[in-house]
Specification:
The chain is of the alpha+beta class. It folds into two domains: 61 residues, no CATH class; 90 residues. 29% of the residues lie in helices and 34% in strands. The longest helix is centred in the N-terminal third of the chain and has 17 residues.
Length: 169
C-alpha cells in the first residue's frame, strides 16, 4: 500500500480506556488503523506513528495458527512461530539527515526481517522530494544486541521497486 496520508486521533476501548488511533491512508482508498493505549511513547504525533508502524510490522509477521473452526489458537508457542525460531530486530529509518529507530520487532526469520526492511526502504523512496538526488542508506536492521545485520540503500530499494513494478498481479 502506498501511503498518501496519516491521521492521528483519539479513540476509546470498549472498557472506556482512552486510546490513540493512527490511520494510514493509502492510494485508492485503502486504510489501516492502529489503536494503542495512551502513554509516553504514543502521546506525541511522531511517537504515535513510530509505535503504530512497529505494531504493524509485528502483527504482519506474526503467524498464529488457526484452529479447525476458524478461530485463532491462542496457545503461545514458547519462542517459536510455527516451529521457526523467532528473532528480535530493530529497524532504523533514515529521516532526512537523521535516523529514527522504532521499538524492537519479533520476526520469524532474518529473511522475513530483511524483506520488511526492503519494503520500508521502497516506501521511503516515494516521499523523497527536493532538488537533491537521494543517496546512501534508507533502512538499517540490527539484532537484539545492536549489531548491524544489513543496510538497504537507495540503489537496492530502487532495484526492488522496479522488480515489484514488473511483477504481474
Amino acid at each position: 500500500m502506498h501511503i498518501v496520508g496519516i491521521n492521528i486521533g483519539q479513540a476509546a476501548a470498549p472498557s472506556g480506556l482512552p486510546l490513540v488511533r493512527v490511520v494510514f491512508e493509502g492510494q485508492g482508498g485503502e486504510s489501516i488503523a492502529v489503536e494503542m493505549a495512551r502513554g509516553d511513547v504514543a502521546d506525541g504525533a511522531l511517537g504515535a506513528i513510530d509505535r503504530a508502524k512497529a505494531l504493524l510490522v509485528q502483527t504482519a509477521t506474526f503467524e498464529m495458527p488457526v484452529d479447525r473452526i476458524g478461530g485463532f489458537n491462542r496457545t503461545p508457542e514458547s519462542g517459536n512461530v510455527r516451529g521457526r525460531q523467532s528473532n528480535v530486530y530493530t529497524f532504523e529509518y533514515r529521516d532526512g539527515d537523521q535516523a529514527r529507530q522504532v521499538p524492537p520487532a519479533v520476526m520469524p526469520s532474518f529473511e522475513a526481517a530483511r524483506a520488511e526492511a526492503i519494503r520500508c526502504a521502497i516506501d521511503l523512496l516515494v516521499p523523497a522530494t527536493g532538488d537533491d538526488d537521494l543517496t546512501g542508506w534508507l533502512v538499517r536492521m540490527r539484532d537484539q544486541a545492536g549489531n548491524e545485520l544489513c543496510t538497504i540503500d537507495v540503489a537496492e530499494a530502487e532495484a526492488a521497486r522496479q522488480a515489484n513494478d514488473n511483477t504481474p498481479l
